[in-house]
Specification:
heterodimer; A: about 130 residues; alpha/beta; 5 helices; about 25% strand; B: about 900 residues; alpha+beta; 6-stranded antiparallel β-sheet; 28 helices; about 45% helix
């Protein structure tokens, strides 16, 4: 099964680093980077299908539309059966994690900086789900 | 053509008065009676005719009461001969030859059987002058009557009327007397009294000719005819009556002329018995001196009737006396509510009420009475007429009496012997006195209840099973139970458990007839307190009721207890109390000292004897004590103000003393001083004074505000410190509600906490905002204590402190915390983001095989990130300096 790798992150350096790490561990999906929640949401609104699997890397602090707002809209639009959402945070801020408490879309919290070792772990989770 | 004369005649016949008179005799259609048949037979024989009749002229027929020589008893009126006597109003009608008389020659009885040729009729005239019919003699041959015959017939006609009259009397009697027996006796009397004898007297011969009946009456033998000498006859007459008898001819001859006389006299029968004779007679002939020469008449024996009459009269008189003598009302009404008979009392009462006489036969429901009253009485009569016998109680209004009288009226139906209903007899017995007595009893009862309820003591009745029957209102005051709650309950259920046995025992004593007084027990008040009671009780064996009076002796008990206590106290005082009693002489030398001196002053009593009291008193007080001590000689009792007194250990004690002059009391002969060591008391007083002063300082000058509230948080008291604390005078706060001064945002919290004082005695109320006298909000902290039950306070005491400074401080710290939190957030998000980037970038650089341009790009990223961090740190430092200046903000 194929999947799309959707990155929602305003910091181009993190995009750069994330792309490097993804390539480094050999994740196969198309990479779609968006610099804020609204851009990503527009993409999903247009292109989301049940037949396609999605892996979403979501930063929380972003201009225009932050990660919290995006999730709220995304939950209405997508299904957990074909989506995995990883939250990217620069700190393991407890408050941020509490706001997603019990949300079934959220698979993991990833603390920056992103290393290949972390993405390797994610690869297992992704392949477990989407084979 | 209208025949006036004929109409007049018919009117005579049909004159209602005449017909009424006729019917009043009740003769029509009655059967034959021997007395009348005797008369017709006699008439026929006197006149020597074939037929003799007694005819009664009805409205359309003539009825024969007796018909000698004819075998029918009535004919229609048109063929009647006798009707002419009535129609033409004649005493006699003699028709010697009917065939020659135009009135009769066409009469069917003339033309055919019985072929009347001769008719002589004599009017039967009632005492009221109405003609009833005739006694007539009839023959088939023409005839003339001589004067003698005519006279006889006239007399007989009178006799017939008399018989009718008797008959009516009898009937009237029957009406008057309700008892059938009397009716029968009367009837017999009348019948027997009609055995009439006929006599003729001639002056010439002095002989009295008697018929057989006349002879029989006096017991003489009669053989065809009988004449007796006048003297012989007169001998038989009762001497007392003789003169009247002798007089009868002459009186009647001159006074009444031609009219029949009537006399009753006593006469002796042949066998010696006394007879009552009724004689009628008439002068039939006159001599040349115009004196009666011949008389004719009848005698009849009325002994039985008279004696019975006398007896009836006597009986009636007795009854009447009884009936009329009583003040009770007796009357009877018939089925139409007409009065049959009434006694004098009834008649008098009615007369008083109606202002007119009420007569027998009048409606017993007079129009003068109210419709309601008449209806009520009608109902009573109806009830009795339906066969019921009953009594009712009624008010009887007698206008002549000031008081209402009451009658117990019995109604009972009256029947004749055939059980036919005749009317109602009523008997009203005056029961005013009974009713009055009842009313007196009732009002006495009410009075008793009033007295009972006015009583401060409990008054009650208890039945033999121990239940309260009655109890007065004092129960509510003494036991807390209202009479309603007690009546029907067992008294023992209210007695204190420990006293139940004794109370039951006492109850038995009372029930056995002993009068119990001064029995004491305790009752349990509704509020569970015990109430000592003092009882006295008596037993009413007739009603099986215990009458009890009980007094609340709580006060008495208290007094007793106090007395006991004071006795004990006295004992303790003298022997082991804290008071020393001493007796001094006038110079203050000790004569006696109580054993308590060892305890009070630490000096044995003996030590004092002979010494002077002033030796022990602090010199500072000498003057004052001396002055007071001298006062006792004038004032008998004096209180000496505290002074210092030295004890055995050399300690100065403060003593308080009361000195009483008892020099005149032989058993004492000195001045009694009661002395108490008040050193401790003084110390305590001083301490108290000090604490009071301290309290005063706190309340008046402290920073804490003390206030007292009622349950609704209205100020009852405010300490003067409010001036200082709240910038408000206490008076401006009094009566206002605390919540009105509190910041609206804090209302609910304060009120909830304040309300908790009703459950928890003391509550801490968290700081809240309160507008002070200058319009500023103060933060106040409060402790509220419920002192509702403390009689000197009865409110919620509040200690309040101004904590504005502290609260503002706390607020500032809170604000600072918020700022710090922001810094921390910055730290985590803004500072750490570039650091994380740097770390990621540096990891990349470490990798080998990086192109030069890639390396350059990464280094650019690193520089950017480092600059970003620098910027963030600068910002944080700015923020921190800003937040630390809290104190200056305040």
């Amino acid at each position: 099964m194929t999947y799309e790798l959707v990155m929602v992150e305003d910091d181009p350096i993190f995009i750069f680093l994330l792309e490097k790490a993804i390539k480094g561990v050999g994740l196969q999906g198309n990479i779609r980077p968006y610099s804020n929640g609204l851009e990503a949401l527009n993409y999903f609104k247009k292109n989301y299908t049940k037949e396609q699997n999605y892996v979403v890397f979501l930063d929380l602090n972003m201009p225009v539309m932050d990660g919290f707002e995006f999730m709220k809209a995304f939950e209405d639009l997508a299904s957990i059966s074909n989506t995995l959402v990883f939250i990217l945070t620069s700190s393991r801020n407890q408050k941020d994690m509490d706001s997603f408490e019990g949300n079934p879309f959220i698979t993991e919290y990833i603390s920056k900086p992103i290393s290949e070792a972390i993405i390797k772990n994610l690869k297992e989770i992704i392949e477990d789900k989407f084979g | 053509m209208f025949d006036f004369k004929e109409t007049m005649k018919r009117n005579n016949t049909n004159n209602t008065g005449r017909l009424a008179t006729l019917s009043s005799y009740e003769l029509l259609d009655t059967s034959l009676e021997k007395v009348y048949d005797d008369i017709t037979e006699l008439a026929a024989s006197i006149c020597d005719t074939e037929i003799s009749l007694i005819t009664l002229i009805d409205d359309s027929r003539q009825f024969f009461k007796s018909h000698y020589g004819l075998n029918f008893n009535q004919t229609s009126l048109d063929v009647s001969f006798c009707k002419h006597l009535v129609m033409e109003d004649m005493d006699e009608l003699i028709v010697p030859n009917t065939k020659r008389d135009p009135r009769f020659k066409e009469n069917p009885y003339v033309l055919s059987d019985p072929k009347i040729s001769f008719y002589a009729g004599f009017s039967l005239t009632a005492p009221n002058g109405k003609r009833l019919g005739a006694l007539c003699v009839i023959d088939t041959e023409p005839k003339e009557l001589d004067e003698g015959q005519k006279r006889s017939l006239r007399t007989l006609a009178q006799q017939v009327v008399q018989l009718f009259e008797l008959r009516r009397v009898k009937k009237e009697y029957a009406h008057q007397e309700t008892k059938q027996k009397i009716k029968e006796i009367l009837f017999n009397t009348i019948v027997s009294s009609t055995k009439i004898g006929v006599w003729e007297w001639e002056k010439d011969t002095g002989l009295l000719k008697l018929t057989k009946e006349a002879a029989t009456i006096v017991g003489l033998e009669h053989k065809g005819h009988l004449s007796v000498k006048t003297e012989a006859w007169e001998k038989r007459i009762h001497p007392s009556d003789l003169a009247a008898v002798k007089e009868r001819f002459y009186n009647n001859a001159f006074v009444n002329k031609n009219k029949a006389y009537d006399i009753t006299y006593r006469m002796f029968h042949q066998n010696g018995n006394l007879l009552y004779i009724q004689e009628t007679g008439k002068v039939t002939g006159w001599d040349t001196n115009n004196e009666p020469a011949a008389l004719q008449g009848t005698i009849s024996d009325i002994t039985e009737k008279t004696t019975h009459n006398a007896q009836i009269e006597k009986l009636k008189n007795n009854q009447e006396a009884l009936i009329n003598g009583t003040k009770d009302l007796l009357w009877s009404v018939d089925t139409e509510y007409n009065l049959i008979i009434a006694n004098k009392a009834f008649e008098q009462l009615m007369k008083k009420r109606l202002k007119r006489e009420i007569a027998e036969g009048d409606l017993a429901l007079p129009d003068e009475f109210s419709t309601e009253a008449n209806q009520k009485w009608k109902l009573y009569y109806k009830r009795a007429l339906s066969g019921e016998q009953f009594s009712v109680k009624e008010k009887i209004q007698d206008p002549s009496k000031p008081l209402t009288t009451y009658g117990l009226i019995s109604f009972s139906p009256i029947y004749d012997k055939n059980k036919a209903l005749l009317g109602v007899s009523c008997f009203s017995k005056d029961i005013s006195s009974e009713v009055l007595a009842q009313q007196v009893i009732l009002s006495a009862k009410e009075e008793t209840v009033k007295i009972m309820n006015a009583s401060l003591d409990i008054i009650c009745t208890i039945n033999e099973d121990g239940y309260f029957l009655t109890i007065n209102k004092a129960s509510e005051r003494i036991w807390g139970y209202s009479p309603k709650e007690l009546i029907g309950k067992k008294y023992i259920d209210f007695v204190y458990a420990d006293d139940v046995m004794e109370s039951k025992k006492t109850e038995q004593h009372v029930a056995s007839g002993q009068e119990v007084s001064f029995f004491e027990n305790r009752y349990v008040h509704k509020n569970k307190h015990l109430i000592p009671m003092l009882w006295s009780a008596t037993w009413d064996n007739e009603e099986k009721i215990m009458y009890c009076v009980a007094r609340d002796i709580t006060e008495k008990r208290k007094a007793e207890d106090q007395l006991k206590q004071s006795e004990r106290r006295f004992k303790t005082l003298v022997q082991e109390g804290s008071e020393m009693i001493a007796i001094l002489d006038e110079n203050a030398n000790y004569i006696y000292v109580s054993p308590t001196s060892s305890k009070v002053l630490n000096i044995a009593p003996e030590y004092f004897i002979g010494k002077n009291a002033f030796d022990f008193i602090h010199p500072e007080h000498h003057e004052a004590v001396q002055a007071k001590f001298k006062e006792t000689l004038n004032k008998s009792q004096v209180k000496i103000e505290p002074f210092r007194f030295i004890n055995n250990k050399g300690e100065w004690l403060w003593l308080e003393t009361i000195a009483t002059d008892q020099t005149n009391e032989p058993s004492i002969n000195g001045i009694v001083v009661n002395t108490r060591d008040i050193t401790e008391k003084r110390k305590a007083e001083q301490r108290l004074e000090q604490s009071e002063r301290r309290f005063k300082t706190l309340v008046q000058e402290g920073t804490e505000l003390i206030a007292i509230f009622d349950q609704e948080a209205n100020f009852i008291y405010v300490s003067p410190t409010s001036n200082k604390t709240l910038k408000m005078a206490p008076e401006t706060l009094l009566g206002t509600n605390a919540l009105d001064h509190i910041h609206p945002d804090d209302h609910d919290a304060v009120y909830t906490q304040f309300a908790e004082t009703l459950e928890t005695q003391q509550v801490y109320i968290k700081p809240f905002r309160f507008k002070n006298g200058e319009g500023h909000w103060l933060w106040l902290e409060t402790i509220a204590t419920n002192q509702m039950k403390e009689p000197s306070i009865e409110g919620i005491v509040v200690n309040t402190r101004d904590v504005t400074d502290r609260v503002l401080h706390l607020k500032a710290i809170e604000e600072q915390n918020t700022a710090l939190k922001e810094i921390a957030w910055n730290q985590s998000h803004i500072v750490r983001a570039p650091v994380a980037r740097l770390m990621g970038l540096i990891n990349l650089i470490k990798e080998e095989g990086l192109k030069n341009d890639e390396r350059a790009e990464i280094l650019d990223f690193i520089l950017n990130s480092a600059e970003e961090i620098d910027h963030v740190i600068k910002k944080n430092v700015e923020r921190t300096t800003f937040t630390i200046d809290i104190d200056q903000q305040l």
